[in-house]
Amino acid sequence: MQQKPLCQLCGGEVQEFFDFGRQPLSDRFVAPTSTEPEFFYRLAVGMCEACTMVQLMEEVPRDQMFNAEYPYHSSGSRVMQEHFTQVARRFLETELNGPDPFIVELGCNDGVMLKTIAGAGVRHLGVEPSGSVADVAAASGIQVRKDFFEESTATEILTGDGPADVIYAANTLCHIPYMDSILRGVHTLLAPNGVFVFEDPYFADIVARTSFDQIYDEHFYFFTLRSVRTMAARHGLELVDAERLPVHGGEVRYTLARAGARQPSAEVARMLAEEEAQGLTEFATLERFASAVESRRDELVSLLRRLRDEGKHVVGYGATAKSATVLNYCGIGEELLSYVSDSTPAKQGRLTPGSHIPVMPPEQFRSPYPDYAVLFAWNHAEEIMANEEEFRAAGGRWIGYVPHVHVV
Ligand code: SAH
Ligand code: TYD
Ligand code: ZN
Question: What pTM, to 2 d.p., does this model score?
Answer without folding.
Answer: 0.97
